[in-house]
Design brief:
The structure is a single chain. By secondary structure, this protein is an alpha/beta fold. It folds into two domains: 5-165 and 350-427, FAD/NAD(P)-binding domain, CATH 3.50.50.60; 167-242 and 280-344, 3-Layer(bba) Sandwich (FAD/NAD(P)-binding domain). The chain is 27% helix and 22% strand. It has helices at residues 17-28, 77-84, 87-92, 100-112, 188-198, 212-222, 246-249, 255-261, 265-274, 285-301, 392-395, 405-417; strands at residues 5-13, 35-38, 118-119, 123-131, 137-145, 151-161, 166-167, 182-184, 204-208, 229-233, 307-309, 312-319, 324-330, 333-339, 341-344, 348-349, 384-387, 426-427. The strands form four sheets. Strands 1, 2, 3, 4, 5, 6, 17 and 18 form an eight-stranded mixed beta sheet that branches. Strands 8-15-9-10-11 form a five-stranded parallel beta sheet, covered by helices on one side. Helix 1 crosses helix 12 (405-417). The longest helix has 17 residues, at 285-301. Mean pLDDT is 94; it is low at 420-431. The structure holds flavin-adenine dinucleotide.
Length: 431
């Protein structure tokens, strides 16, 4: 006999901050839905590969998972501080910007209070339409697999996808995707730090990319006790500061989502380009000062241990016995440089067509969501597909960040409840 397939009103794919905020909004709402979030990782962790000891949040703690929607929720950052007995000492620090470690601990604390909300070690590997009478798609089957290879199929009426970004690997590095000597920044703490600790001789490392992650990794490496020699390769002439000034910050206000959505596609694209320096290829001002100070001190001491290679482009990559060699176009000249390790701080891509939703491509009318975060689908396709974090082009720069999470979660939760929840049933596979 085949195992019964459990049916849900909602399955969520991914359990990062976006779907965690939604899980809280669903729990705090009136009509409970039968929901489950499926997360690939074995336990909750927020960008574990970038949990650096010196990194701080780039958004105020007030923009936690709930405060903008419900400041009296037990899941606010202040409730977390209170529970941990640190609220007064946090106030004494006079900052709106906790460390990344502390915010990860806050997220983990919230997730631990919702043990039924998420099934961990469940990487979603396929989504299949359940086809009924007149070729209508009545529901979806979601297939997930554990690290050990065990597969589960569940059925759902609606789906919310919040899987974050995919590491962006520049074409020249693509053949080295699985190479031990080329890593993406998302694996820095988990894969690079243990190798630094285990290495006998100082490693020679290139950090590629002059945005916040590249700068943070560079700074972490130059302060690492293994004393690696680090080249910081940036495309531009200078590290540029991120703009977080108050008038500009208003583009991350929740009211701005509709304002940007209601513009034409051309207007939106122009707007995103104009304000890209709030989030992309820019670095926190304090960190720029620290890095500048380091290079200045190198001049004072005459020890040019680390290099900032400005206006640099990687033209070719070759595997060597140990490590890789990069051919660099640097200020009009071609340079060859050998490294034990290259770290690509080259950002992320977020395209619906690269996600698991590509399984449903024949039923999608567009890859762009409507204002309510729902993807338009063909007639006769009944399940609703909501996106979190994949709508920057239409919903603005806050979409990939933490800025509007509680209110976006509320909007999606309201839409989910707008349909009388089907009584969750357990169907047999044959049904
Ligand atoms: C290093 C770093 C620092 C950042 N700092 C800030 C900041 O200070 N302020 C800010 O506003 N934003 C920041 N961001 C932006 C970041 O995108 C958001 O903070 C937040 O992580 C978005 O949450 P999310 O849930 O949409 O995506 P994610 O946090 O990326 O979570 C997606 C989850 O989906 C899971 N998943 C993916 N595919 C599958 C699958 N097939 N099956 C099951 N699970 C899957 C992943 O394992 C992951 O846990 C930062 C980003 C990075 C990389």
């Amino acid at each position: 006999m085949t195992d019964p397939i459990e049916t849900f009103d909602l399955l969520g794919i991914g359990f990062g901050p976006s779907n965690l905020a939604l899980a809280i909004a669903l729990q705090e709402g009136a009509a409970p839905l039968k929901s489950l979030f499926l997360e690939a990782k074995p336990r909750f962790a927020w960008h574990p590969g970038m949990l650096l000891d010196t990194a701080d949040m780039q958004v105020s703690f007030v923009k936690d998972l709930v405060t903008l929607r419900n400041p009296s929720s037990p899941f606010t950052f202040l409730s977390y501080l209170h529970a941990k007995g640190r609220i007064e000492r946090f106030v004494n620090r006079k900052t709106f910007f906790p460390s990344r470690h502390e915010f990860n601990d806050y997220f983990t604390w919230v997730a631990a209070q919702l043990p039924e909300a998420c099934a961990y070690d469940q990487r979603v590997t396929a989504i299949r339409p359940v086809i009924g009478a007149e070729r209508r798609v009545e529901a979806l089957e979601v297939v997930s697999t554990t690290a050990a290879g065990a597969t589960t199929t569940r059925r759902t009426r609606d789906l919310v996808l919040a899987v974050g970004g995919q590491p962006n690997i520049p074409p020249v590095f693509v053949p080295f995707g699985q190479d031990q000597c080329v890593l993406h920044s998302s694996a820095y703490v988990t894969d690079c730090k243990p190798r630094l600790a285990a290495g006998r001789a100082p490693m020679r490392i290139a950090v590629v990319g002059g945005g916040q992650s590249g700068a943070e990794i560079f700074w972490d490496l130059v302060n690492d006790p293994s004393r690696p020699l680090v080249d910081f390769l940036i495309r531009g002439q200078a590290l540029k500061p991120s703009d977080d000034s108050p008038f500009v910050n208003e583009i991350f206000d929740s009211a701005f989502t509709s304002e940007i959505f209601n513009r034409s596609a051309v207007d939106r694209a122009g707007f995103l380009a104009d304000y890209a320096n709030t989030n992309y290829a820019v670095v926190d001002g304090d960190l720029i000062e620290q890095i500048y100070g380091l290079f200045y001190e190198q001049e004072v001491t005459g020890d040019p241990r680390h290099r900032l290679l400005r206006s640099s482009r990687v033209e070719a990559v070759q595997a060597r016995d140990k490590g890789v060699s990069l051919t660099l176009h640097h200020r009009g000249e071609t340079l060859e440089a050998q490294y034990d390790l290259v770290i690509l701080a080259t950002g992320y891509t977020r395209r619906v067509e690269d996600t698991i939703l590509s399984d449903l491509a024949p039923w999608l009318l567009s890859q762009e969501a409507e204002r309510d975060y729902q993807l338009p689908t063909v007639e006769g396709f009944r399940p609703r597909l909501f996106l979190q974090g994949l709508c920057e082009a239409t919903h603005g720069l806050s979409d990939t960040l933490l800025s509007v999470l509680p209110l976006r979660a509320e909007e999606i939760a309201t839409s989910l409840r707008a349909v009388q929840p089907s009584r969750a049933r357990v169907l047999t596979a044959a049904e």
